[in-house]
């Protein structure tokens, strides 16, 4: 039944390869626990108490609450599937609740350092320099995820409409507007790429490695870490920080929260509301500095 469930989420739910791998690992770990502790071969026959026992063991092992909650969500999907298929009569996950976690305020780069990075830092005027700047401009200028950037294809760039089409989570497409200067950079990069590799570079994907093939995640992470290190002392310097920065700067400048939700590809507004915390902090600071009654 496990293989049937994994086939279901792969083809019907259309989840990403990364998510599918996480589901498989979660189910395998749950299965191993049931075998070792209860000599139970079929995870679909597990009871509420056995599930709860596994969750307790995860917490006691020191696994962070976010990871535990992801495993709980995996089991919720698994047993929900079993119930719909009438393999089980009652859902043992009904009495299982997610662990309470503290909300983390997104880490982001302030506007001034981003201006310095993109306007004042000298990027080499060759393929690598233009590629690195394009990576930073796309991540900050569109808010796309690391996987979305790596998977961005030449055909996804609409030079006429000044947009890019991004394939996001659950294989959902979204269209994101891109400022004209960024398109000028894309065109300059394209020309340099053709000259660098003499037409032998990968013709499908936009961002390429030094060898002219599709870029890989670690390369993008290195680029971001190296250049953010020039303008910020933030401990975390990752592509996702630039995604947070994009959303925070939009919100600080008055963008509608629903519009930001759509641009980021969030399925619900709840995921986007984390950015309001940074905006509220900014408003409180302005109030405390300027209002005569702030005390």
From TrEMBL:
Keywords assigned by UniProt, alphabetized: Cell cycle, Cell division, Chromosome partition, Cytoplasm, DNA integration, DNA recombination, DNA-binding
A Pfam family of this chain: Phage_integrase
InterPro entries: CB, DNA_brk_join_enz, Integrase-like_cat_sf, Integrase_catalytic, Integrase_recombinase_N, Integrase_SAM-like_N, Tyrosine_recombinase_XerC/XerD, Tyrosine_recombinase_XerCD
GO MF term list: DNA binding; tyrosine-based site-specific recombinase activity
Cellular component annotations (GO), alphabetically ordered: cytoplasm
Ranges where the Tyr recombinase domain occurs: 104-288
Residues the record marks as active site: 145, 169, 240, 243, 266, 275 (o-(3'-phospho-dna)-tyrosine intermediate)
Residue ranges occupied by any Core-binding (CB) domain in the UniProt entry: 1-83
A Gene Ontology BP annotation from the UniProt entry: chromosome segregation
Protein location: Cytoplasm
Domain of life where this protein originates: Bacteria
Entry function: Site-specific tyrosine recombinase, which acts by catalyzing the cutting and rejoining of the recombining DNA molecules. The XerC-XerD complex is essential to convert dimers of the bacterial chromosome into monomers to permit their segregation at cell division. It also contributes to the segregational stability of plasmids.
Cited PANTHER family: PHAGE INTEGRASE-RELATED (PTHR30349), TYROSINE RECOMBINASE XERC (PTHR30349:SF77)
Oligomeric form and interacting partners: Forms a cyclic heterotetrameric complex composed of two molecules of XerC and two molecules of XerD.
Sequence similarity: Belongs to the 'phage' integrase family. XerC subfamily.
Name listed for the protein in its UniProt record: Tyrosine recombinase XerC
Annotated source species: Larkinella terrae
Gene from which the chain derives: xerC
